Amino acid sequence: MKITVAKSAGFCFGVKRAVDIVEKLADSGKNVCTLGAIIHNPQKVRELQEKGVRIVESPGDVSADEILVIRSHGVSHDVYDRISSLGISYEDATCPFVLKIHRIVAENSEKGDIILIAGDKDHPEVQGIIGHCASEVHTFMNGDELEQLIGKFPLLKNSPVCAVVQTTFNKNEWKKILKILQKLCTNAKIFDTICSATSDRQSEAENLAAESDLMLVVGGKHSSNTNKLYHICQSRCSETFLIESAEELPFSALKHADRIGITAGASTPESIIKEVLVTMTEEIKNIEESEAEPKFEELLEESFKNYNTDGRVHGVVVGVTPTEVRVDVGRKQTGIIPLAELSGDPNAKSEDLVKVGDELDLIIMKTNDQEGTILLSKRLYDAQKGWDDIVKAEEEKTVVTGVVTEVVKGGVIALTNGVRVFIPASLATVSRGDNLDELLKKEVSFRIIETTRQRKRAVGSIRSVLNDERKQKTEAFWAEAEVGKKYTGVVKSLTSYGAFVDIGGIDGMVHISELSWNRIKHPSEVVNVGDTVEVYIKALDQEKGKISLGYRKAEDNPWEILKNQYPVGTECEVEIVNLTPFGAFARILPGIDGLIHVSQISNERVEKPQDVLSVGQKVNVKITAVDFDKKRISLSMKELLADKAADEETEEAAEEAAEEAAEEAAEEATEE
Prior knowledge:
The protein is of the alpha/beta class. Helices cover 35% and strands 29% of the residues. A five-stranded mixed barrel has the order 13-14-15-17-16. β21 and β22 (457-461) form a beta hairpin. It starts with a strand and ends with a helix.
């Protein structure tokens, strides 16, 4: 089998630039929102949402502390005006190729030209282009629609016309449109604005599809350029599949193809393309290897044909040893079941499986009249009966249970009703890369997703059942979830921007800013994977499946401690943590610094704080002002000096008054 991946598959320049802008802002701790989904790929959108990136529908939805990112599709001129009027901070990630079209239509429409746009009028890129047109504008999707448009508006034939095309438009359809424009619109300026990367991608995909037995197009099903790739490939290869992730791979079709081609839309991350390629090659290899090796049941059935047997028998256990089980089958011969024929589990012990008096259904493997014995197999009987149950389970999509008996290359083997079921590594756990050894000897639930009746081969999926269970837990969670509700959860993973916590079958994210009242560089400074933590729901977005969790406790808020224990006028000892030309910042509490302005350091003139203070030095100050809204605190060393001087003056005055009183008393005593 030959697998070829298109060189141009994956992110185009414009999409990569937009995603990089969003990720850089989010990773730096900024609150980011995008005007519509930044990319037409649900997996990447979910990943960005987990970083705290929010999707808004209009500039009016942007919060004051958020930075708005305009996606690569671009927006209309009115949207820019709206952003400006609201004073919103924003980053423009519009693709340069789209900006070029904006300039073309803006300049030519100001001259009065009629604008013709080849593209989908409902696509955000085309809507943005229309928003830069100051004159009459028309859109069309193909040559037929263009001819109908010209028939409806005959003036287009001779009037000044400016024609542009959506950057991701089908290049073959554009060639047809060009001929019509050149033939019918005699006064038209035509701009071929299809992105060069799109054109190359489509050409390569078309050539690859023509050489392939089966074609895979990877990308979001709502992506315009991905759908165009799919239709181009389908026209050259009838076995073309559009998939969003590795889970949608058509394995039954793949294993019959000799030449497989893979391409991907401009909004498909490289990680998804790699996952598809790795999963596909691993699964096909596993299938080929497993089918190349004769199964136990097949070998047994073949050998079964060579012996003189009487088919199935019913027997009663009369003896159990570590190596075999003796059975009375109602004949003169003694029935013997070797341990290997008792169960398909290589780790099983005969005394754990049966006891004297148990009744068993068995198959005769060999009769030895000279020794007076009959070799029996419960394993083969169970396999034959279990196979019927397996086929039925596949047809009815029911869940079966079994025990994982082996961890093999590429997956695990689970035994259910005597039938060995191969479960690929990619379908054995929820997350790819989980340790398969943890499943060994454990009972698992799975679905049968494929059977080969001739070879009695079955493939199962544990992930299918786990996903259903997770879905049920998710539905139960959303039915009772509310902001403020508390949960005990387990930390599942850490990223640079926060911690993901399992709160009962569904994950929520504690943003790094919510882990501690103090500034931290990484979540591992507060929590570690596997920690049990108390969290509460801070915000919910059921439509997007986003759960924001809080971890910090209000009573630990240093600003609340400051408010309750350090009112204005409080004298306290602080530590100098930073020096600037205008003053010194001093640590009052962990996470709270106050400013000692240069004018408040001493009664004498201080040119710069470094002349008097140093980082790490501890000094006494007085809290003179607190602005809780702006989180600003003013401190003064100077006022403490003034207070001390005032206290000394008061003390001296008191002493003088006491001395005067004593002198007066002495004089009065003398006069008497």
